[in-house]
Structures are given as structure tokens and as C-alpha cells.
């Protein structure tokens, strides 16, 4: 029995080391290449929502869309270490009072970690893995790469992933040519892109995009923001 237990432990350690090195290698190579597929995208396709996506390089992503997603989703993105602890604390307090109306506080980094490496859900296991992958991409990729991946992989409509697919679907143009107004509309839908639609224009997006435009005007004066979106 002791010999069997030792062999199981030995093989268990090898498997764990293999898994760790494999995911580390995957994180590293994604610093330069885009993820071939994500669990979220695969689920979208299998569920019948479809899958429209077209990854493009950073220089073919509009300055406007990069600025718009920061304005809409994570205004302290340039300076945090992956987590917005104040927003997380507020969300936890809100969710304790209103458990049926759960509020999130994910940063752009967390959303990339979840959408590229994990699955959708709120289990403690997934949240724990999200913390791990968030820290790893902050260390290995850096802010500019995280932002580029975010703009390429995030869902921007039912079955629509990334700014290029969104720009083509909604405005019949490339992501590089998105105007401030168009970028703000796409970014305004991000909290729930299946519910808050760009085309047809939902009441929420019509209202929120004006706020996003105002925030874009304010944020683009910040040197840290400018360094990431140019």
C-alpha cells in the first residue's frame, strides 16, 4: 500500500508540474500571438449564438475604441496592479444587501484573464484561478498587451467578439476607422452586450454612450492613458 501511495504521489506531482509548465508556456506565447479560441467563444458557437471574430494587430485598433473601453470599464486601468480593491469592496457590500442583483467589479485585466483562460461563472474555484491568471498576465504581458487582447476577444454583441467584428457588423467598417461616437456606443454595451444592443440601439446604450464620450474627453488628457491607447 505504501509503495502504491508513493507511486500515485510521484505521478501526481509530475502531472501537476506538467500542467503548471504548460499553462505558463501558453501565457508566455500569448504575449505575442492571439488566443486561437476561448471557452466563452466556443460556448457561444455551441449554444447557437454564432461566432464572429477577427483579431487585428494593435496598430489596426482605433485609438477611439481603446480609449472608450477604458472610459467605460476601468478608468484606473493604467495604475492598478490588476484589481480595483475599492470597487471590489463596494460590490461585496452591495451584493450582501441585494443578493438577487449581483454587481461586479472586474477590471480589464480580470476580464481578460476570465475570457482567455477560464469559463463564465461565479464559483470560488473560478474566482481563485482568475486571481492567479490576472496577476500572471499583469507581470508577463504588461498593460498594452492586456488592453489589445481585451479589445480583440471581449464579447461586444451576441456572438460578436472583438472590435473588428463589432465594427464590421454595426458600422460596415474596420476597427481602425471607428469614430469616437461609434467606439463609445460599442463600449457602452460591454456590461451586458447581449442585453444592451448597439444595433438596434437600446435605450441603455443611447443614454450611456453620452457619458462614455464625456469620460473619454476627460481621460485622454492623462499621460498614462495616452501611453496605452496610442
List the total number of helices.
11
What's the CATH class, please? Mainly Alpha
CATH architecture: Orthogonal Bundle
Widest sheet, order of strands: 1-3-2
Q: Secondary-structure element order, as H and E? A: HHEHHHHHEEHHHH
Distance between the termini: 63 Å
User: CATH H level: which superfamily?
Assistant: Biosynthetic peptidoglycan transglycosylase-like
Global geometry: globular
Give the CATH topology.
Answer: Penicillin binding protein transpeptidase fold
Count the beta strands: 3
Helical coverage, percent range = 55-70%
Which segments are poorly predicted (pLDDT under 50) over 5 or more consecutive residues?
A: 98-102
What class, by secondary structure content? mainly alpha
Describe the 3D structure.
This protein has helices at residues 2-29, 39-46, 63-73, 85-97, 108-117, 124-140, 143-153, 163-171, 180-188, 203-219, 223-229, and strands at residues 52-53, 155-157, 160-161. The protein is mainly alpha-helical. It has a single domain, classed as Penicillin binding protein transpeptidase fold (Orthogonal Bundle), CATH 1.10.3810.10. A three-stranded mixed sheet has the order 1-3-2, covered by helices on one side. A hairpin with a 2-residue loop joins strand 2 (155-157) and strand 3 (160-161). Helix 5 (108-117) crosses helix 6 and helix 9 crosses helix 10. The chain is globular. 35% of the residues are buried. The model is unreliable at 98-102 (pLDDT under 50).
Amino acid at each position: 500500500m505504501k509503495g502504491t501511495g508513493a507511486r500515485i504521489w510521484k505521478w501526481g506531482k509530475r502531472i501537476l508540474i506538467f500542467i503548471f509548465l504548460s499553462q505558463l508556456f501558453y501565457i508566455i506565447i500569448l504575449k505575442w500571438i492571439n488566443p486561437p479560441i476561448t471557452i466563452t467563444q466556443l460556448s457561444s458557437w455551441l449554444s447557437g449564438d454564432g461566432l464572429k471574430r477577427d483579431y487585428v494587430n494593435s496598430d489596426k485598433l482605433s485609438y477611439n475604441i481603446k480609449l472608450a473601453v477604458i472610459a467605460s470599464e476601468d478608468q484606473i486601468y493604467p495604475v492598478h496592479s490588476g484589481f480595483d480593491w475599492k470597487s471590489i469592496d463596494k460590490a461585496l457590500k452591495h451584493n450582501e444587501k441585494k443578493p438577487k442583483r449581483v454587481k461586479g467589479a472586474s477590471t480589464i485585466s480580470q476580464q481578460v484573464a476570465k475570457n482567455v483562460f477560464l469559463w463564465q461563472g461565479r464559483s470560488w474555484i473560478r474566482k481563485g484561478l482568475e486571481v492567479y491568471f490576472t496577476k500572471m498576465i499583469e507581470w508577463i504581458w504588461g498593460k498594452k498587451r492586456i488592453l489589445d487582447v481585451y479589445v480583440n476577444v471581449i464579447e461586444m454583441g451576441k456572438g460578436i467578439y472583438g472590435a473588428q467584428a463589432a465594427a464590421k457588423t454595426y458600422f460596415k467598417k474596420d476597427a481602425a476607422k471607428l469614430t469616437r461616437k461609434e467606439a463609445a456606443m460599442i463600449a457602452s454595451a460591454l456590461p451586458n452586450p447581449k442585453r444592451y444592443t448597439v444595433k438596434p440601439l437600446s435605450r441603455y446604450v443611447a443614454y450611456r454612450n453620452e457619458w462614455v464620450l464625456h469620460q473619454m474627453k476627460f481621460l485622454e488628457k492623462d499621460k498614462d492613458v495616452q501611453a496605452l491607447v496610442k
